UniProtKB/TrEMBL annotation, chains A, B:
It comes from Trapa incisa. It is an enzyme of class 2 (transferase). This is Glutathione S-transferase. It is found in: Cytoplasm, Cytosol. PROSITE patterns: GST_CTER, GST_NTER. Pfam families: GST_N. Is involved in the conjugation of reduced glutathione to a wide number of exogenous and endogenous hydrophobic electrophiles. Its EC number is 2.5.1.18. Keywords: Cytoplasm, Detoxification, Transferase.
Amino acid sequence: MAGEGRVTLHGTWASPYSKRVELALKVKGIEYEYVEEDLMNKSSLLLQYNPVHKKIPILVHNGKPIVESMVILEYIEETWSDGPRLLPEDPYERAKIRFWATFLHQQVFEVLVLVLKTDGEAQAKAMEQLHEKLKLLEEGIKGSFPGGSPAVNGENMGLLDIVVCSYFGPYKVHEEVLGLKYLDSEKYPLVTSWVKSLVQYPAVKESTPPHEKSVALVRYFREKALQSPAGVL
Amino acid sequence: MAGEGRVTLHGTWASPYSKRVELALKVKGIEYEYVEEDLMNKSSLLLQYNPVHKKIPILVHNGKPIVESMVILEYIEETWSDGPRLLPEDPYERAKIRFWATFLHQQVFEVLVLVLKTDGEAQAKAMEQLHEKLKLLEEGIKGSFPGGSPAVNGENMGLLDIVVCSYFGPYKVHEEVLGLKYLDSEKYPLVTSWVKSLVQYPAVKESTPPHEKSVALVRYFREKALQSPAGVL
């Protein structure tokens, strides 16, 4: 099969972008080596593989690097095409999945990060934006996927499940650090039940870091951002 | 074939995002109806088809809307799969095309717009950023596509050609409004010759608005942005 050969993922354990590649590899059942990168001290391999963005995740397949998480997910789907599917067959169904994945990728995470790195009025404003996005997602999912979760089939997470899970999978971590709930099952019943079912998937469970470790990291970043005048996270 | 049926594109004549859908449809030889939208007075169809972003372009195929230009290009490629190809067969080659298309989509256009809507020191800074991006593109294209242009074949523009052309195709319009050159054949020989060959493609020529009309519009937006304290374009 086209997907034979050596596979290495360069990532960091807390990055949602690494997480989605990790989940895709697990859904497909692809064996891979994992290299944890230190972003404060980037390896020469990282800089060689991704000279444009100097970022993770990087998937290296038989010596060839692929970068940008969404590009990597498409590559995995196309290369290991005989494994479980990440995208449905039908072009229109694929377009819907890609649309919502792009929405999450381009619009939701930056607002979530803003909530995590601010307080007071700035946080209230960011939280309002997050709720607007969650409302759009709730209504959009209801309209776009009348059958419920957009998993490719009941057994396997698909591309959109993976992207949702990479951002909202750690919602309990976020909620503990913030001391407030944002994933509200009364306001967003579909999104909430979707995320709660995704975190029960074996691939997600086995790749989820210990809760306290994640809380400590998000708390550290939050405190650092709050102390910085520019709010850099 | 899967791509049969009625096709309508909702766009605006000066949008690079509409332009790329228009070019993809022309490359594939797909007949379509074009609806020019007035973004100051959005049609009820536009709002119905794209309630999340309320933006163009929107491709409507047999009554079903597809939005987001990059999602639409993938949809066109997959639906009219027996027409000329927009993407190569090999997953790694596809990943390279998608990587550079994402780079242009996410990083280059906003800098180009910044150059067009500022002057003085702010413009000098934006121009410096644009040159950094052009340098990355020049080096990246050299490394990624040793054969030269990433056109899928010599006859047909591919997805990356289309994205490049949607931004830099009107470089003469930008240069006239700015009164300066940015597409420098000495600094960026590959990118410059690539863009210059793309604007000669029949599909591009027949979809390029009259030069003076484009100059007038870009000049209008530039003047409006310079008059606005927030520099809104």
